[in-house]
Amino acid sequence: MSPQDRPVLIKGASLLGEQTADVLVLDGRIAEVGSPDAPADADVLDADGLVLLPGLVDLHTHLREPGREDAETVRTGSQAAAVGGFTAVLAMANTNPVTDTAEAAERVLDLGRQAGLVDVQPVGAVTKALAGEELAELGLMARSRAGVRVFSDDGRCVSNARVMRRALEYVKAFGGVVSQHAQDPDLAGPSACCHEGEWSGKLGLPGWPGVAEEVIVARDVMLARHTGSRVHVAHASTAGTVEVLRWAKAQGIEVTAEVTPHHLLLTTDLLAGYDPTFKVNPPLRPDEDVRALREALADGTIDAVATDHAPHARHDKEHAFVDAAFGMLGLETALGVVATVMVETGAMTWADVARVMSSRPAEIAGLGGHGRPLAVGEPANLTLVDPAAATTVDRDASVSLSRNNPWHGRSLSAAVHATLLRGVPTVREGRLA
Length: 433
What we know:
- The chain has helices spanning 74-83, 102-115, 138-143, 161-172, 185-188, 198-203, 211-227, 239-250, 261-265, 287-299, 314-317, 334-343, 350-365, and strands at 8-15, 20-26, 29-34, 43-46, 51-54, 56-61, 86-91, 119-122, 150-151, 177-180, 194-195, 207-208, 231-233, 255-259, 304-305, 382-392, 411-421, 424-428, 431-432.
- By secondary structure, the chain is α/β, with parallel strands linked by helices.
- The longest helix has 17 residues, at 211-227.
């Protein structure tokens, strides 16, 4: 009997951190919840003391393939995702070649299926070659086998308002969404490498102000209102962005937003040692921004947590701070950071974690088979979490190809115990199955 055919009994799990029940999985779906009689050949997962969540969904992952397989591949990125409790990830378009055609999107989709560890959903570029000038093949990508619904030039802002308006109008026709890397290139400047403020002055580093993000967010929510279309704010990082989002949602504008784990915990003072591990775009911000982001995530102003997992080969990251590549790893540690920052502090429950890391991201991305309730008949894309585990992050233990891990040496609360993709365990006891 293949793993796909074998029944799985998850025994004694706490569903969303609330009631305890056994969950029987048959043929990739939840067959019974309560006290089912398991078949004799069932694969039994002892879940005593563990929390069962719908499988995590990441709206924002860089898998680097094709083009930079020295930093990550779809397979190694999928491994990192599975270990982190994810059952679906959205692969950003800034590869080489760029995912700006239907053929390129289908290639990423097929690479994900070959890896077989998570569902890899390609994100299509908004503009050809991410140049910000001419719309990419949005309709063809949407109608392709990849069924692209999220489009982004992430890493680059769609700074031209006319192009952004046309993109919003175009994707509205098939229920798509534009995910914007909100960063005004004129306010940020070509050499900016950190937040403009006290620490950039102390360290002599060129910085860009929070308003460079906020003016693009403000512009885009007005364009979304004008077009009646959907805009998604990638990696929100400032208190000012939170203010704009609250206003826009109060007006009924179709805007959603994500925050990264690193923007929920890490602050700009970490730049004091000029460690390029902490160079990220958007940059780490001061305490007041971090507090605003946490509050916005807890009250629903920010819809989702997304990793912005950005692996880099050492020869791209190990440079002087101003010359190093932007980005951090995030897939394997995201849940631990959210548990530490939001659950351990009482700001959120495990049901809230399921909302911001599974059901809401799946809804934004249009992934119907993910983020579903823990109920009979639903796909068995599931994550088991040990809420009592405390882990110290070791960058050398990562299954990613890269080592630009900002959490190295930190202790994080909770740990992923098991991950199931359509009823098949991809991770057991924290390790790839």
